[in-house]
Design brief:
The complex is a heterodimer. Chain A is of the alpha+beta class. Among the domains of chain A are: about 1-65 and about 655-690; about 245-355. In chain A, about 40% of the residues lie in helices and about 20% in strands. In chain A, the strands form ten sheets. A five-stranded antiparallel sheet of chain A has the order 10-17-12-13-14, with no helix packed on it. In chain A, strands 5-6-7-8 form a four-stranded antiparallel sheet. In chain A, strands 9-18-19 form a three-stranded antiparallel sheet. Chain B is α+β, with helices and mostly antiparallel strands. In chain B, strands 3, 5, 7, 8, 12, 25 and 26 form a seven-stranded mixed sheet that branches. A five-stranded antiparallel sheet of chain B has the order 13-22-15-17-18, with no helix packed on it. A three-stranded antiparallel sheet of chain B has the order 4-10-9, with no helix packed on it. In chain B, helix 1 (about 5-30) runs antiparallel to helix 7 (about 465-490), helix 2 packs antiparallel against helix 6 (about 410-460) and helix 5 (about 390-405) runs antiparallel to helix 6. The longest helix of chain B is centred in the first third of the chain and has 55 residues, at about 45-95. Chain B starts with a helix and ends in a 6-residue tail after the last helix. Classes of the chains: A alpha+beta, B alpha+beta. At the A-B interface, helix 2, helix 3, helix 6, strand 22 and helix 10 of A face helix 1, helix 2, strand 13, strand 22 and strand 23 of B.
Amino acid sequence: MLKNMYAIGTSLLYNSQISINVHGQNAANGATPGYRRRTIDSAAMPYINIGGHELGTGVDIQRLCRRFDSFLASQQHEKGGEYSMWEALNGNLSAMDNLFKDSATKGLTKAMTDFWGDWQKLSENPDTPAARTGLLGQSKALFNLIRSKYADMRNQANMIEKSIAQQTGKANGIMKRLAEINRHIAERANVDELKDERDLLLEKLSKIVDIKAVEKSNNQMTVMLRTGQTLVSGASAYEFKYEGSKVVSGVLDGSPFKDALYFKGSSNHEYTVECISGGPADGSGGAAGFRVSIDGGATWLKNADGTEKTFAADGNNGRIKIGDVEVWFGAAGDSATAASTNLGKGDKFIIKPKSNLYWYKNSSTFEDVTPRGDSMDRLGGGSLAGLLKARDQHIGSYSKKLDAFAKSLIWEVNYAHSQGAGRKHFTSMLGTYRAERTDVPLSRSKLAFADRIKAGNVSIAVYNSSTGANVANKSIDFSSINPPGIASFDPAQHSLEDVRDAVNASFPGQLTAGIDNGKLQLRAASGMSFSFAGDTSGLLAGLGVNTFVSGSGASDIAINPMVRADKGYICAGHVNGAGEVNSGDSTVANVLAALDGKHVFFFLDGSSSKSTFQQYLSDLVASVGADTAAADTAQAAGKGQLKFLNERQEALGGVNVKEEMIQMKRDQQNFQNASKMIEIANEMFDTLLALK
Amino acid sequence: MRISDNMIYGATIETMNQSLNEVIRLGLIQSSQKKLLYPSDNPAGMGTALELHAQNGSIEHFMENVKTAQGWLELGDKILGEASKTVAKIQTLAQQASTETYTNEQRASIAKQLRELLGTLVNQANTRFAGKSIFAGHKVDATAFDQILGATVLDKSLDDGAVESVTGKAPHTITVDFTNNGVVGGGTDLGYRYSTDGGKSWKNGTLAAGRQKLNVEGCTVTLKNGINVKDLNTDGGTRINVRPAVVYNGDDSDGVTVKSLNGSSLLTTTLGHFDQNVVVRVDNTGTVPGPVNYSYSLDGGSTWTSGNVSSNARLTIPGGALVLASNAGANTFSTGSQFVVAPNTADIRLSISRTQSVTVNNVGKDVFGGLYRKPGETALSKTMPDKPDRNLFETVAELIGFVESNDVKSIGKSLEKIKTSHAHLEGVNGTLGARVNLTDFVLNSLDTRKSNNRTYLANIESADLATVMSDLEKQKFIYSSVLKTNKDILELNSLSIL
C-alpha cells in the first residue's frame, strides 16, 4: 500500500517535470515561425483492486498533443491562395494605376489635347514658322510620352517574368523539402517537429500556387494543385518549369503530317490552330485549310461578316499573320524549308507565343497550368496565378490597347497629312515604311500598315522650280502594269515594284521612282519639283510618303525625320483646283485639328471598334482603374477572411506566454506536492519501521 | 476565445498601420485638393473627368480661334466702313464733276482729288492683319492690289475688251481719238490724235498697217487684232481713254476642276459652289444617264458615304452636284471610277466649334473689283463680268478718265455705277459685321460650356476642403488613441503582474 503511495508520488514527480519541460518549450518558442504549442494529455494510471476497493496508481502522460487543426489548415490554404493571387495582381495593377495618374493634367490626355491645339494654331497661321516649331515640339512631347508609357508597361511585364521565375524556383524548393519530410516522417517516430516545418512550408506553398493537401493515415502528406496535378506524393516531388514560347503539337495519330508548325512574334494570347481540310502545307494548290481560336477552342476567329475565318496553310515565303504572330509550316527541324507532308483533318497545334508555367509529370509529359481567361483547368490561386494574370490578361491587354491607340493615331494623322502640301515642294523624297517583299502585292508585303491600304488613286502635281508654274497635276496611271491593266491602284494586285514602274510611266521626264531597301524613293527631274495632290487609297500613308509620323506602333511612334529636319514639309495647305499651293491655305491643318472629334477605327485582337481618340484613351484609363479597384476590393475581402481563419488557428495553437507561465507555476506546485507526498510516505514508512 | 501572444502583437501592428494609412490618404487629398488621384479611386469618374478635361482643352483652342477670327473680322469691318466713306466722297465729287456748269479747271482739281481717293481705296484694300493680307484670299503674302494702267473704249460697237493691255506710266489720262476708218492690223495705216490735257491740245500719231500697238507719251496700248475703228465723224467715232486701273494679285475661289482619277473619258461638269474637295466614286456599271450608284468622301477617301443613287447622271454631293455626260460616243461608267471635284479655294477658315468654322478673309476682287489675270490665262480681264456695275475699282478708274477728259455725258453714266458698287461694298461690310456678331455669340456659348464642364469636373474630382480637413484631424486623433491603447496593452501584457 505504501509502495503504491510511493508510486503515486513518483508518477506526479515525473509528470510534473515533463509538463514543465513542455510548457517551458512552448514559452521559449512562442515567436518561432510555424511552432504550434504542445499540450499534455494525462490520464489516471490503471486502478488496482486492494481489499475489494478500487485504488488509483497515479497519473500518466498519455501523449503530447500538437495543437493544430488540419481542417482549418486546408481552409487557410484555399483562402491564402486566393488572397496571395489578389495581392500579387493588385501590386502590379497599382503600378499601372500609378502610370495613368494625373492623366488629365500632366499625362496623355493633356499632351494629346495640346497636340490637336497646335494644329489649330497652325491653321490660324499656316505661313509662320513659329506655329510649326510649336507643333513639332508638342508632337515630340506626345510621342515621347506614348513610347515611355508603353516601355514602362513592357518593363513591368519583364519584372513580372523575373518574379515568376523566382517564385517557381521557390515552389520547387518547397515541394522537394516536403517530399523529404514525408520520407523522414516515415522513418522516424518523433514527428511533431517535422510536422511544424511541414505545415509552415505548406502555408508558404499555398501562397504561391493553389494547393490541396491531404494527410494520409501514415502521416504522409499528399499535395496537389486544385486542378488535380500532383505536386508531392510520398517521397517524390514533381516540378514546375517556367519555359519560353513553344508549339505544342496535337497531330492526330493517323495523320500523314510529319513536319512542323513555326511561328514568329509574341503575344499575350495562346493560339489554337485546327486543320479543317487536309492538304499540302507548302503553299501549293489545294492547300490545307485551318481555323484559329484564342480561347482554347471555345470560339473560333470570324470574318467581318460573321462567318468562320479560314486560313490557307503556307510556307516561310507566305507567312500568315494571325493577331500578333506570323505562322507558317516547314520541314521538321528546318523552318526555312517547305513541309513535304500533308496536313490531315483534325490536326491541332497550340501556339504559345509567351513564357508559360508548366507542370512536369516526367521529362516528356507536361501540362500548361498558366491561367487562360476564366478556364477552370488552369492555375487559379497563389502569387504565380496573380503574376501570370497580371502579365497576360492585364498588362498584356493594356499595352496592346495603347499600341492599337498609337497605330490608329499614326494612320489617321498620316492619311490626312499626306493629302496636303507644305511650304515647299519636294525635289526628292524617301518613304519611311519598308516592304519586306517588293515583288508581291502590297497587301502581303509586310508593310506596317498594309491592311489599311485600299484601292484608289494617288495624284501628284509637278512644278517648274524656277517659274513655279504647275506643269502636271494628275493621278498615277497603273494601266501600263499588265496584268491586271487597270488605271487605279489596287493593293491586292500591285506590288511596290509596280508602283515604281507606274510612276515612271505616268511622269516621264518629270519624276523618277526607285526602291531603296524596300522603301519608295521619288526624285524630280532637274529644274522640277513636286507635291502630292490627293490620295484616295492610303498608299502614301502606307509607304510613309509625305507623312508626319513615323513608326509602326506605341513602341516606336516618332516624327517623320524628313519633317523634323525641315518644318517646311509640314502640310498645312493643299494643292487646290488651280494647281496652286498658297501660303494662307490651312485646309489640311484644319482637317488634322478636327481629328480631335472624329470617330476613327481601332483594331484589337481581330475585332474593331469606333470612337474618338480621347474616348479610347479614357476607356483604357478607366479599365486600368476598374481592374485595380476590383483587385483592391478582392484583396481586402480576402484579407479579412484569411485573418479570421488565421486567428482561429492561432487561438488553437499559438502560445500565450503568461498562460505557459501559469502552467509552469502549477507544475512547480505539483512538483512540490509530489515531494511532500513522498516525504509523507517516507515518514509513514519510518513509523512502520519504528514499530518493535 | 483563447488569445495567443502573436495575436496581440499582430493586432497592435495592424490597427496602427490601418490608422496611419488613413492619415496618409487624407493628407494626400488635402495637399492635392483632389479626391480623384488614381484611376482606381473612381474608374468611371476618371473616364468622365478625362473627357471633360479634353473638351475644355479643345474649347480653349476654339476660343483662341474665335478671338483671332474677331481680330480679322473687326479689322475688315472697320476698313470696309472707311472704304465706304471714301466711296461716298468719290460720289460727291462725281456729282459735282457731272455738272455742266463746272469748268475744266474745276474738273481738273476734282480729278486730282479722285486720284488721291483711288489711292486711298487701294491702300485700304491692301490692309494686313498681323502681316497677312485680308483681301487676297489664300495668297496672304501678296499685296492684294496694285495700281497700273487700263483703258476705256468709247465706241458704239466696241467695249473695253478691244484693248488687250496697256503698259507704262501716265500721270494724266491720255485721250486717243481715231481719225481714220479701218481695221487694226489690217492693210492700211490708221491715223489718230491724242491729248494729255483733257482736250486742250492734241498731238497726232499713226498706227502702221499690220500693227496693234499704239505708243503715246511713254505708254503702249495693245489693241485687239481685227477690230474696226471709226474716225471722229463716223457714228460717234472710236475713242480710247488711257487711265488708271487696279489689278488684283490675290487668290480666287471661282473655278472648280474635276479630275478623273482612273481614266474615265466621260464629260464632267459641276453645279453649285464647293468649298472643299469631294471625291466621288461610282459603284455600279452602266451607261449614261444611269441610274448611277455612287459614294462620296469629304476626307480624301478615308471615310465614304455610300448608298446614293442618281437616275439622271446628276450626282448630288455636298455643295452641289457632279454631272456626267457622254463624250463623243463614250457613254459608259464602271464600278470603281473615281473623280475629284477640286474647287479653287481662297477662304481662310478658323474652326470655332466642332461643327462650325468662320471665314475670316475675303477675295478682294469680289469686293472691290478691278482687273485680274485668271490662272492659266495671259491677258487681264475685268472681274465681276456678270455684274460689271459692282466693279468699284474699274468704275472709279474710268471715272477719273472721264473727268480728266471732261466727258460730262460719261461722268453722268458713271454716277449710277458708283451707287451700285457702293451698295455692294456696304453689303459685304454687312456680312462681315454679321460674322463679328456670330463670333461674339459663339465666344459666350463656349465660355458657358467651359464653366459648366468645370462645375461638373469639380463635383467628380475636387475634394471638399472643409470635410477633408476635419476628417484628417479626426483621423490623426484616432491614430494617437490607437498608439496609446497599444502601448497600454503591451504594458499590461508584460510579466510584471506575475
